[in-house]
Write a sequence for this structure.
């Protein structure tokens, strides 16, 4: 069970009710499809579940979490109201960022005895600072991703389809220890590479094609994320030029990065290079995002970001240039920000690769 002191520094509530699967997983590291987690100050926590999980959830008892079972004929809300009453809880933080309007309306009606306060952003903020264990999982996920990349380079050749490359890449990640993929793998070839988030198709890879692969592994529930664009045979002069500009932008972004920089500032390190080379209008997305249990977490690095990138946070560095009808290039590494500097966790080569 994670320490919740930081959450209660941020939220003004007496207790925080965690319902979403991913946030329950985050705090308890106990996976279940159903449960209510009540966080209270001084790390007094209660996990409410049903008979399907009650026995397994006993593992939380040793971590100081009280585990309650919903008795036949009662509802979780009855149990919640009892906890709130017993502990003199008047205000309850809830996941405004996760609940549907329907779920919220129902909860507000049934928990009218307490005041509900939005706490979704506070939970996201707490989740953005990773523990050493979380960092180790993300590092492992990234190393699996790097190994799979080195293996797929030996497989890609003209005649394979984008879908075949996708399946091979995901298979390689699984063989190297991934428990799944971090997000839907992006494989784009030829002119499809101008679409930043292209879905893999049955298009056959041809000689001269760029092939963009944006992919990640999941390890102990945590994501990794990287992108490389490689060429199958000699690229055109234009694509080669685009590649060099993206590479320069990406390396400048990483070399200028420092602990405490603004997300907007980090974005500008990459964007200015692309702008000075005349491709500004073709860099159509933000520079980076953090990750964790979700593939996209805060902080963000974009033109509009107000985030500060601090120690124990992750950020991707993924500038790209996309020209419809010509093609696109993206290069993405995963960075860990620490007090004494930035570590690039992505070890794969990013000099132009021509297969
Ligand atoms: Mn990414």
């Amino acid at each position: 069970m994670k320490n919740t002191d930081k959450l209660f520094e941020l939220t003004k509530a007496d207790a925080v009710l965690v319902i979403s699967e991913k946030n329950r997983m985050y705090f308890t590291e106990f996976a279940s499809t159903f449960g209510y987690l009540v966080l209270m100050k001084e790390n007094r926590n209660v996990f409410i579940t049903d008979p399907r999980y009650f026995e397994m959830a006993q593992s939380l008892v040793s971590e100081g979490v009280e585990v309650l079972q919903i008795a036949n004929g009662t509802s979780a809300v009855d149990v919640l109201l009892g906890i709130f009453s017993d502990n003199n809880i008047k205000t309850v933080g809830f996941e405004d960022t996760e609940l549907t309007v329907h779920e919220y309306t129902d909860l507000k009606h049934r928990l009218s005895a307490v005041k509900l306060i939005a706490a979704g952003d506070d939970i996201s903020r707490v989740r953005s600072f990773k523990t050493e264990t979380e960092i180790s999982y993300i590092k492992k996920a990234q190393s699996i991703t790097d190994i799979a990349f080195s293996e797929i380079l030996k497989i890609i050749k003209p005649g394979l389809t984008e879908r075949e490359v996708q399946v091979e890449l995901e298979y390689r990640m699984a063989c190297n220890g991934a428990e799944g993929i971090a997000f839907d793998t992006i494989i784009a070839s030829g002119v499809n590479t101008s679409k930043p988030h292209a879905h893999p198709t049955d298009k056959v890879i041809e000689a001269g094609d760029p092939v963009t692969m944006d992919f990640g592994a999941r390890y102990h529930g945590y994501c990794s994320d990287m992108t490389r664009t490689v060429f199958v045979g000699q690229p055109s002069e234009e694509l080669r030029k685009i590649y060099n500009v993206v590479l320069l932008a990406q390396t400048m972004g990483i070399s200028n990065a420092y602990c405490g920089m603004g997300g907007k500032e980090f974005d500008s390190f990459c964007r200015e290079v692309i702008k000075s080379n005349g491709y500004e209008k073709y860099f159509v997305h933000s520079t980076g995002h953090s990750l964790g249990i979700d593939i996209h977490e805060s902080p963000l690095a974009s033109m509009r970001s107000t985030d500060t990138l601090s120690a124990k946070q992750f950020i991707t560095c993924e500038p790209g240039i996309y020209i419809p009808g010509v093609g696109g290039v993206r290069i993405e590494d995963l960075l860990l920000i620490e007090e004494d500097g930035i570590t690039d966790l992505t070890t794969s080569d990013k000099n132009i690769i021509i297969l």
Summary: The chain has a mean pLDDT of 96.
